[in-house]
Design brief:
Arp2/3 complex 21 kDa subunit ARPC3; mainly alpha; globular; two-stranded antiparallel ribbon
Length: about 210
């Protein structure tokens, strides 16, 4: 059990670093306030391999790296806390779907697995960008154009960014699952005792590496 936890923490840290590297690469800049990238994918992978707790840990490490490496936009302490220490960990809530995804992969049901992954990615994206939306309303209202409320401005900017980022991540993750779902397989995952857990775990172990 201790080795499994250590493995999960190491994987969370490594993929948080990968997310940071992807974030430092040039993103797709649509407007001054809207840019999209693949950077959430490593955290989604952790979450869908180990569950939401490990996914949230990976997201937290990514948020801390953003601040430490100077890639964060910080106007106020509270704003930084919301956008980097709450929003980034919430990407990991995609891990709430971990058992469903692992089950579908174990049964070699790629299309249902893709559907579960899409739902997970949407949940993680929504949770993160809802925090950015809140921060935008209270701390970035000065950037709103004239005759546009801070709420509407933040909704347009963060809502558009969320939808486009979700689509981009969804395309990549769906393609990877259809081509090679093994990258999400976690043979060390502890299955809950629901009668079928053992059989699903055995099926995962039988998947070729």
């Amino acid at each position: 059990m201790k080795n499994m936890r250590l493995h999960a923490m190491i994987e969370a840290a490594i993929l948080a670093s990968m997310a940071m590297v992807l974030d430092l690469l040039p993103s797709i800049q649509l407007t001054a306030g809207i840019s999209i990238s693949f950077s959430m994918i490593p955290v989604f992978v952790v979450a869908l391999r180990w569950g939401f707790r490990t996914g949230m840990l990976s997201g937290l490490l990514w948020g801390v790296l953003q601040v430490v490496l100077g890639d964060a936009t910080i106007l106020y302490i509270v704003q930084a806390f919301i956008e980097y220490l709450i929003a980034f960990p919430l990407v990991g809530v995609a891990g709430l779907f971990v058992y469903k995804v692992q089950q579908q992969i174990a049964e070699d049901k790629k299309r249902p697995a893709v559907i579960m992954v899409l739902l997970a990615i949407f949940l993680g994206s929504f949770a993160r960008y809802f925090c950015h939306f809140i921060a935008g309303v209270y701390f970035f209202d000065q950037y709103a154009p004239e005759n546009m409320s801070a709420v509407w401005y933040s909704f347009v900017i963060n809502g558009t960014t969320m939808i486009l980022t979700f689509i981009l991540c969804a395309i990549v993750m769906s393609g990877l699952i259809l081509v090679s779902p093994r990258f999400l397989v976690n043979r060390s995952l502890a299955w809950p005792d629901r009668g079928l857990g053992k059989s699903f775990g055995n099926n995962l172990k039988n998947i070729k590496r």
